[in-house]
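Duplicate of #3305? Posting structure anyway:
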């Protein structure tokens, strides 16, 4: 979409307003239309039902008329005196007397006319025509039916243009002799129609069948409508119905332009022949009047709703879009870099879910930002491994341990052996650099045959001691013809100023301070193969010497008045080796040394891997930074130490590590690529990450900022969850095994002692052999019991405790005391060391550190859900 299109495109609120208005209008219109149709249908059904009911009433009224006539006739013929009188008058042919007798009873018996017939159907006398004597009526349907059945007969009697309800009753003398028949009738007139209208409530019209067409004989309709009705009844369908004596229900007629609903009920004579019909009528306009009022009310209500729809839509759009507008503004602010805004999370609908998701996204971005800033700041002083790398950073003053290594054998060189001498010196310097780097230090300078290195962090003294032990150890593959002389090593500690020193256009890094001067004095006091410690270094290592069972006595030097502490390489190896294997809290190597002999920077392994530098050292081997020349990519190579090459159990353990680690594919787990042997040395190739370990971060800043620590905690649980998902227990979760990339992404590494969650063969760990680091081991591991995924959760709790407070939950002078505290003591609340720690986070950490595994989180996923609920 172009900028112009975006400028004129309606906003979301406008679109919702228009859509809602149209939707309401369409919905209301459809509802009104459907309701109108339903109302009309209901009204029509009601009119039809009402008309049927009225027709039924009319039929009942008609039946009652017949019953009334029958009753009249029975009363008349049941009087023996009357019948005797009629019999005598008939014999005397005294018609006038009979007529007088009938006329005298007419008012009492309520009939229109009466006829006395002889047994053959001839008129003896009739009240409506005195001159009709001897008139032959035996062919009249009513009379014919009575003559043939000699029973009472009722039906419609037509006399000219008039219709009558009539009854024929036999008259007898002495109950057995047939005297004749009495016919009584009353006419179908407007009066009768009005009476039926009063009873049924509908217009009533009586029509007689006539060759010229239906003829209205009685009606409650106005005269104009009667004519219109006659014309409507002359239609073909109506004519067929009238002549056939068919009942017609719900016939729609138009009378004087108005719609009417009619129901035709045939009028029949005694044999059942149609002579006319009763027409019940209802005006649809009149009947629909009430329903039309309802329809108009509904229409007006719908119109009002349609008119109110825009107002309602506007109000609804504003109310609905208020949180959306807030989120849009927050998103725009986040795009411009404002990640510290607060999002109001309300409701449980889609908008509430969107707000919660956006708030969580902002929290994650804040955590990522803070972590990246923190790692970037630390990385400014991170040493870059490499044989010729130098750091020229800003001047700074730090507590550190300095180490000087003097290779005195190179002080006595012959001029004709210069190339070989420098080659040997290069080999020695690379070996020293490998040991220093593996122990967490950095080589600072090479002056003649003297190497200067530095160590920082809380465990700097132990790292320096481990590096010195590795350097003093004689390489097993040194050629016999080469003259050897052990190096001299001195360690001093204190505040050292580091930074660049510039002269002209050149710049060089320098170290200035009392420890530098002390190194010079200490080197003069040492003999080859000795390690000389200044008083400050010995003070930092005093606990380690006590744990190893050594008690060093000070020695006064010949040059320096300060007390010296001298120890052999073997003693240094034992002290630093116990620290590495048991405590496991630093990166220093075991007594075996920091590198593999003959494998240093610049070496080519198997024509494939070019060794660039030493990254670190562990209990089993050394990790190198290398370039895979086949794939042209940087990798990390983990290789066994030379003294362990022949141990097949160690090789099988290495293979097991690879098999387990290769199952895990997750952004927060260091990838493992391949396993093999090069030049007889077993190796594992892994993903290379340029970053810092969590231990380095803790050494530099004591504890992490809250947001950075929370992000790291989530990444740790995510990576560990991925390992558990494929059935792998890490068993050695600690800060040294978490490395952070410059982007702030943390990766869990070193599955060297990992094992499957469910082992095929129990007892993989030897009896009495402690696997893991005591500071981070769960109580069940310290007791030698079978450990499951909840042991990793316990170690996570220790790491969380440390990154949020800068302290370990249990610390002591010796390893055994730490283990006993893990078994029997409860940790101090983390808020003791950081009062601002959120209460919910403290509860999460303490639940991880429960002694009973059943009281911890059941899975890492459950722990991760709790961490995700916390916001930075």
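Output from current build:
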């Amino acid at each position: 979409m172009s900028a112009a299109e975006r400028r004129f495109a309606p906003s979301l609120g406008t679109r919702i307003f228009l859509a809602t208005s149209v939707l309401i209008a369409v919905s209301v219109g459809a509802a009104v239309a459907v309701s109108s149709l339903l109302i009309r249908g209901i009204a029509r059904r009601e009119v039809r039902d009402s008309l049927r009911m009225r027709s039924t009433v009319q039929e009942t009224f008609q039946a009652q008329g017949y019953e009334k006539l029958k009753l009249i006739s029975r009363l008349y013929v049941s009087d023996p005196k009357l019948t005797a009188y009629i019999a005598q008058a008939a014999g005397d042919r005294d018609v006038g007397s009979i007529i007088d007798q009938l006329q005298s009873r007419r008012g009492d018996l309520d009939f229109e006319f009466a006829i006395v017939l002889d047994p053959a159907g001839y008129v003896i006398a009739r009240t409506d025509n005195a001159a009709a004597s001897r008139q032959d009526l035996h062919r009249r349907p009513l009379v014919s039916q009575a003559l043939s059945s000699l029973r009472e007969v009722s039906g419609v009697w037509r006399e000219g243009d008039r219709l009558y309800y009539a009854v024929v009753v036999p008259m007898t003398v002495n109950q057995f002799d047939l005297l004749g028949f009495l016919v009584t009738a009353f006419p179908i007139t407007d009066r009768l129609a009005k009476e039926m209208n009063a009873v049924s409530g509908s217009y009533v019209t009586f029509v007689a069948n006539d060759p010229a067409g239906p003829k209205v004989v009685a009606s409650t309709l106005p005269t104009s409508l009667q004519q219109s009705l006659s014309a409507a009844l002359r239609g073909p369908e109506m004519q067929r119905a009238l002549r056939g004596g068919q009942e017609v229900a719900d016939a729609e007629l138009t009378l004087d332009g108005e719609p009417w609903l009619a129901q035709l009920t045939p009028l029949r004579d005694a044999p059942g022949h149609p002579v006319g019909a009763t027409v019940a009528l209802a005006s649809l306009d009149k009947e629909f009047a009430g329903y039309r009022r309802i329809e108009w009310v509904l229409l007006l209500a719908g119109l009002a709703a349609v008119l109110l729809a825009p107002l309602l839509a506007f109000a609804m759009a504003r109310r609905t879009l208020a949180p959306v507008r807030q989120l849009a503004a927050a998103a725009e602010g986040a795009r411009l870099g404002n990640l510290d805004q607060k999002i109001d999370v309300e409701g449980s609908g889609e908008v509430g879910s969107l707000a919660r998701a956006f708030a969580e996204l902002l929290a994650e971005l804040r955590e990522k930002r803070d972590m990246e800033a923190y790692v970037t700041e630390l990385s400014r002083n991170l040493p870059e491994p490499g044989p010729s790398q130098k750091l020229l950073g800003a001047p700074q003053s730090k507590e550190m341990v300095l180490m000087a290594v003097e290779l005195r054998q190179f002080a006595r060189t012959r001029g004709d052996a210069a190339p070989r001498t420098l080659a040997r010196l290069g080999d020695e310097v690379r070996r020293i650099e490998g040991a220093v780097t593996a122990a967490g230090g950095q080589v600072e300078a090479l002056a003649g045959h003297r190497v200067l290195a530095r160590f920082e962090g809380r465990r700097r003294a132990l790292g320096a001691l481990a590096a010195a032990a590795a350097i003093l150890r004689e390489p097993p593959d040194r050629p016999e013809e080469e003259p050897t002389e052990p190096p001299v090593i001195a360690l001093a500690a204190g505040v050292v100023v580091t930074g660049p020193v510039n002269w002209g256009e050149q710049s060089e890094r320098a170290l200035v301070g009392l420890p530098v001067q002390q190194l010079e004095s200490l080197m003069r006091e040492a003999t080859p193969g000795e390690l000389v410690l200044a008083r400050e270094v010995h003070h930092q290592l005093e606990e380690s010497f006590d744990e190893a069972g050594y008690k060093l006595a000070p020695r006064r030097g010949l040059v320096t008045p300060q007390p010296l502490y001298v120890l052999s390489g073997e003693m240094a190896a034992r002290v630093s080796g116990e620290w590495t294997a048991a405590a496991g809290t630093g990166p220093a190597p075991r007594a075996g040394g920091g590198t593999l002999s003959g494998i240093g920077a610049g070496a080519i392994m198997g024509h494939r891997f070019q060794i660039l530098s030493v990254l670190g050292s562990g209990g089993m081997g050394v990790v190198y930074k290398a370039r895979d020349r086949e794939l042209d990519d940087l990798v990390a190579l983990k290789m066994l130490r030379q003294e362990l090459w022949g141990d097949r159990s160690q090789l099988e353990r290495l293979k097991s590590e690879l098999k387990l680690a290769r199952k895990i594919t997750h952004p927060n787990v260091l990838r493992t690529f391949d396993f093999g042997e090069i030049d007889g040395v077993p190796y594992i190739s892994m993903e290379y990450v340029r970053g810092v370990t969590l231990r380095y971060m803790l050494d530099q800043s004591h504890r992490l900022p809250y947001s950075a620590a929370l992000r790291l905690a989530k990444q740790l649980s995510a990576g560990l969850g991925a390992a558990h998902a494929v059935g792998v227990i890490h068993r050695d979760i600690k800060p040294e095994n978490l490395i952070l990339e410059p982007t702030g992404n943390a990766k869990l590494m070193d599955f060297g002692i990992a094992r499957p969650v469910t082992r095929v063969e129990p007892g993989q760990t030897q009896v009495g052999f402690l696997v893991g680091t005591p500071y981070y081991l769960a109580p069940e591991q310290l007791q030698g019991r079978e450990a499951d995924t909840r042991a990793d959760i316990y170690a996570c709790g220790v790491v969380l405790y440390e990154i949020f407070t800068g302290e370990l939950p249990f610390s002591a002078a010796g390893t055994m005391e730490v283990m006993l505290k893990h078994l029997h003591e409860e940790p101090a609340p983390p808020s003791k060391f950081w009062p601002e720690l959120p209460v919910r986070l403290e509860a999460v950490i303490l639940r991880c550190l429960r002694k009973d595994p059943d009281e911890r989180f059941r899975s890492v996923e459950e722990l991760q859900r709790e961490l995700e609920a916390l916001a930075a």
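Confirmed duplicate; merging threads. Residues 385-392, 578-595, 753-771 have pLDDT under 50 and may be disordered. Residues 12-77 form the longest helix (66 residues).
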